[in-house]
Structures are given as structure tokens and as C-alpha cells.
């Protein structure tokens, strides 16, 4: 690989990584979508193996288990207090009119 090609590859990786938010104290990876980032209460547990994308709000005392995928790409998803999303649960919004509120 030439020197210029290597710099281009490094630039592509750097740009990709800027779209990922890492919450150090919770050890989670969250994905921003269209400028919206997931918000998670400090009093909730989200498994490091769950995926949260876009306009997602996780309120107090929520538990999200491994394999859950929550995609707030088109409208907001609000997960209310004392709600549990079990292993492999999938929540996503199909259009701007289809926001989700659970709990």
C-alpha cells in the first residue's frame, strides 16, 4: 500500500469513528443518526451488547438486555421508567408519524 493510500484509509476510519459515541462509565457504544444521539439515564442499565441508534430516550430504572436493537431513525423512541426490553427485542420507527412510547 502506498503512503497516500494509507493516509486515505486512516482518514476514512477516523471519519467513521466520529459517528460513534462511547460512554466510558457504562462501556456502551451508541450510534448517532441524522444528528440525534441516544440519551440514557444514569439510573438505567443498557447491556454493552445492545444497539441504540438515533432519537432514543431511556428514562430512569430501565433495563435493556443483550441483543436488543432500538432504532430511532425516523421518529423518536421513548422508553419510560421501570421498563424492561428483553434479549433480542427490536424496536424501530418506520416513518416520522410512528414514534414509540413504552412504559
Short description:
With 103 residues, the chain is mainly beta. It has one helix at residues 3-17, and strands spanning 20-23, 28-31, 39-40, 45-46, 51-58, 63-64, 69-79, 84-85, 90-92, 100-102.
What report would you give on this structure?
- With 103 residues, this protein is mostly beta strands.
- It has one domain (22-102): 3 Solenoid (UDP N-Acetylglucosamine Acyltransferase, domain 1), CATH 2.160.10.
- Helix content is 15%, strand content 40%.
- It has one helix at residues 3-17; strands at residues 20-23, 28-31, 39-40, 45-46, 51-58, 63-64, 69-79, 84-85, 90-92, 100-102.
- The strands form two sheets. Strands 1, 2, 3, 5, 7, 9 and 10 form a seven-stranded mixed sheet that branches.
- A hairpin with a 4-residue loop joins strand 1 (20-23) and strand 2 (28-31).
- Residues 5-18 have low confidence and may be disordered.
Set down the secondary structure blueprint.
Elements: H1 3-17, E1 20-23, E2 28-31, E3 39-40, E4 45-46, E5 51-58, E6 63-64, E7 69-79, E8 84-85, E9 90-92, E10 100-102
Parallel strand pairs: 2-5, 3-5, 4-6, 5-7, 6-8, 7-9, 7-10
Antiparallel strand pairs: 1-2
Low-confidence stretches: 5-18
* Strand content range: 35-45%
Estimate the global geometry from the Cα principal axes: globular
Number of domains: 1
Mean pLDDT: 80
User: What share of the residues lie within helices?
Assistant: 10-25%
Alpha-beta content class: mainly beta
N/C terminus separation: 53 Å
Question: What is the string of SSEs from the N terminus onward?
Answer: HEEEEEEEEEE
What's the level 1 CATH class? Mainly Beta
Number of helices: 1
Main beta sheet, described? 7 strands, mixed
Number of strands: 10
Amino acid at each position: 500500500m502506498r503512503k497516500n493510500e494509507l493516509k486515505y484509509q486512516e482518514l476514512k476510519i477516523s471519519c467513521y469513528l466520529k459517528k460513534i459515541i462511547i460512554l466510558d462509565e457504562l462501556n456502551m457504544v451508541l450510534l448517532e443518526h441524522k444528528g440525534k444521539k441516544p440519551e440514557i439515564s444514569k439510573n438505567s442499565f443498557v447491556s454493552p451488547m445492545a444497539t441504540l441508534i438515533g432519537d432514543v430516550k431511556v428514562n430512569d430504572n430501565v433495563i435493556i438486555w443483550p441483543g436488543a436493537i432500538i432504532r430511532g431513525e425516523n421518529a423518536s423512541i421513548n422508553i419510560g421508567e421501570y421498563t424492561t426490553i428483553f434479549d433480542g427485542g427490536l424496536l424501530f420507527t418506520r416513518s416520522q408519524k410512528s414514534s414509540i412510547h413504552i412504559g
